Amino acid sequence: MFMTLLVEDNAPFRQSLREMLCERFPRLVVEEAVDGEEALQKVESLLPHLVFMDIKLPGANGLEITREIKERYSTIQVIILTSYDFPEYREAAAQYGADHFLSKESASREDILALVDTIYSEEDEMDGG
């Protein structure tokens, strides 16, 4: 069973991402957080395999939250999924420990699903299949 956490304050976008993931990966357990504080609480209690992280969150910066997650749990994969597709954000995401960076505008449904499939295939192999 794979646990995924969606950290996104835009409810319609979060819901469509959740539906897309659950449709393709029925074994996936998807949890949601709308801000950085909730994200950190859920990471602590759920220990997800994968976190989708928005950059602009209420009262928090997704890059800072990513750094906190990666400092505590280096094995959790973090995908920055943002509307802010700028080179400086890509660079910052890498510096803060994000494993992947996707633009909400340019990443297709298939791009997102293929990345998740790759991550979960690698996890599955590490867990012994």
Task: Describe it.
This protein is α/β, with parallel strands linked by helices and 129 residues long. The chain has a single domain (2-126), classed as Rossmann fold (3-Layer(aba) Sandwich), CATH 3.40.50.2300. It contains five helices and seven strands. It has helices at residues 11-24, 36-46, 62-72, 87-95, 109-126; strands at 2-7, 28-33, 50-53, 56-57, 60-61, 77-82, 100-103. It has a five-stranded parallel β-sheet, with helices on both faces. Strands 4-5 form a two-stranded antiparallel sheet. Helix 4 (87-95) links the parallel strand 6 (77-82) and strand 7 (100-103). Helix 2 (36-46) runs parallel beside helix 3. The radius of gyration is 13 Å and the shape is globular. The mean pLDDT is 94.
List the helices and strands and how they pair.
Layout: E1 2-7, H1 11-24, E2 28-33, H2 36-46, E3 50-53, E4 56-57, E5 60-61, H3 62-72, E6 77-82, H4 87-95, E7 100-103, H5 109-126
Parallel strand pairs: 1-2, 1-3, 3-6, 6-7
Antiparallel strand pairs: 4-5
Helix pairs in contact: 2-3
List descriptors:
129 residues, alpha/beta, Rossmann fold, 5-stranded parallel β-sheet, two-stranded antiparallel ribbon, 5 helices, globular
* Order of SSEs: EHEHEEEHEHEH
Order of strands across the biggest sheet?
A: 2-1-3-6-7
Question: How many strands appear in the DSSP assignment?
Answer: 7
CATH class category? Alpha Beta
Count up the domains: 1
The CATH superfamily is identified as Response regulator
Assigned CATH architecture: 3-Layer(aba) Sandwich
How far is the first residue's CA from the last residue's CA? Answer: 11 Å
The rough form would be described as globular
How much of the sequence lies in strands comes to 15-25%
Helix content range of the residues, please? 40-55%
**Biggest sheet character:** 5 strands, parallel
What Rg do the Cα atoms give? 13 Å
The whole-number mean of residue pLDDT values reads 94
* CATH third-level topology: Rossmann fold
